[in-house]
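Homework help board

Subject: predicted structure for assignment chain

Our instructor gave us this sequence and asked us to write out the predicted structure in token form, then describe one feature. I got the tokens but I'm not sure how to describe them. Can anyone check?
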Amino acid sequence: MALDNAFPTPASQLTTMAQWEVLFSLMGSGVVPGVGNEFAPSLNSGSRLVIAATGAASLRGFFTNGATSTSTSAPAASGSPRIDRYVLRLDRTAVTAANWIKAVIIAGTPGATPQAPALSASLTGSWDLPICRYRAETNGSLSGLVDERYWLSGPVVKFTSTARPSASVPRLGIEVDSRRVLWADGSAWNSLNQDTGWVNLAIVSPNVPSGVPLAVEVIDGIAHLTGAIDIKATPSTDKKITNLPVGTVPSKTITFVVYQDGGVVLLATAYASGSRSGQLWLTGNLSNASNNTTLRMNTTWPVL
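My token output:
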């Protein structure tokens, strides 16, 4: 297999726009974070304008800057509702710099249940960076703005938990000492995977044995409950154990097995709705509970 000449080198210069795009598109495409108002979109329904605030963006290696806001007139109303898209379009056929990247509205197909039009992603003609979409009503009004921007990000970086770099540039990071994958949102580093850490629950009744708290942790939308409670006397009716913290309430009511020391089985229920919503109760086989014994529980459930 023969390779083409490398570029740019002292013997082979970068001479075409295609070469430029191949090389610099490796940096990615998107709105540049922190520049102006990052092309934040808005609608002026009365004037039928779609507006992008100030900002900058890179499209396939080509840079554009909007020092002032840009207003673009929406296409005329149709006989049925329509979804339009507002994009920054790279036009490789343009002959002037002003037309190389322009704000363009792509009119959707009118219909009872309209769909957003497709973006252009050609490697030779035009290529679109989405800014927003909206609904164009038959009476000429514009509504339902949906922000579709995505941001240019930096390369993946490696660091330790005691020496994190600035989070001002959106990017992924590998925290080598904790073996966690984090992402920077422009202001702070966040865990890529949800993990609330263990939260000890305040027991209403009965009691918590020393050294074995009842605790809950949510990892990627799944609540994990573990721990124990002490029974001082056999309950005659359902017994409330605790209130579940916000974000740990099950998506549907769940009943699970609780084990008493010695192997006796009881039932507990985490409620998703009704008067006990967001609460954990002892609910079944209560007569099996012995006085002054410990109940141990370990279960999981999907959260709301």
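Reply (TA_rk): Your tokens look well-formed. For the description, you could write something like this. Residues 17-24 form the longest helix (8 residues). That's the kind of observation they're looking for.
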